[in-house]
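Reminder: ligand-aware prediction takes two inputs, not one.
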Amino acid sequence: MARKEEWQLELGRSVTRAADLDRVLKLSDDEKAAIEELRDAYPMKITRHYLDLIDPGRPDDPLRKLVVPSPQELRHRHGEEDDDVHADEAQYQPCPGIIHRYPGKLLLIPTLGCPAHCRFCFRKGRKVQHLSHEEGERALSYIRGNESIRDVIITGGEPFILPDEEVHYWVSSVRAIDHVQIIRVTTRTPIYLPSRITDTLVGILAENQPIFVTVSFVHPREITPEVERALGKLSDAGIVMLQQGPILRGINDDPEVLKEMYEKLASLRVLPYYAIWGIHAPGAEHFLVDGHRASEIMGALENKTSGFCVPHLITIAKGDKVRMMGWSPEKEMYHLARREPPSAGEPVRLHPHPETRHK
Ligand code: SF4
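Here is what comes back for the chain with iron/sulfur cluster:
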């Protein structure tokens, strides 16, 4: 059996049991009960690196809420089965490992394994599976046979928790397909396990350019010196780095928190691309921010920082990504007031619909 690499050993030391976590964080009885009840449906998994970032003296630490199961996850909402992302995605699955929803691009999912289990994840509840070699070849054949595909998003789960040979297999096989122009990898691995961003991994990605790596930061405290070094290695190798993450209640629904995070990321050559709100997932309702509040938060960033530090605000509606243009009634009033002040109480509407479909 091949000798395990340092990052694999570190991953093996992740915390998955309440008793081990209790020694570090002092869990409440409710948290212990939630960890136990969710053990089959969506078990706890926290890397040692991430655990070290959590303040043990603060039960409401945002980083704690992101990874420690809470009793709120056990609350179910009437009609939440309609938000089942797995059933929705199944409509667009021509074969295992492929989700082809939009023209010109598709998701390739080699594994559903993750280095840690984010409590907000909208794919939560999927059982960990890796594609078999045959399934992988079938998925690649689908891409080869479909010349309209120019953008392949390798996601999961987390592709970077696969061993180097497998990452190499996926990335180089997709790169060898002539009509594929761009390969994207979406990941939170540099956040949970920065030691995974080894020279070998970076070399594999660098050989198969152009590659975009989309990271999903949620809080500025996730950007540690180890994480900065991992991001720096990727950028130095010519990988284009983008940030795409959710706005979550009680975690980052505050313009100052987001500003700090986006500015820090931009200085590390990671460009804020998408901020996502309103994705419903069973057991994650307590993280939901409403659309008006999300617009307000992003609006508060405008003209307060560099334009490239303000990502597009999007949501997912009926399976489509919808870009919110950040136009609010207050801005509309301000804009009109420069020409003629609207009379009191008169409804004003410059744009009948402040949303555009994102293609
Ligand atoms: S690492 Fe990504 S796929 Fe895995 S649980 Fe977190 S958000 Fe979901």
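The mean pLDDT is 88. The longest strand covers residues 240-246. We will return to this case in the review session.
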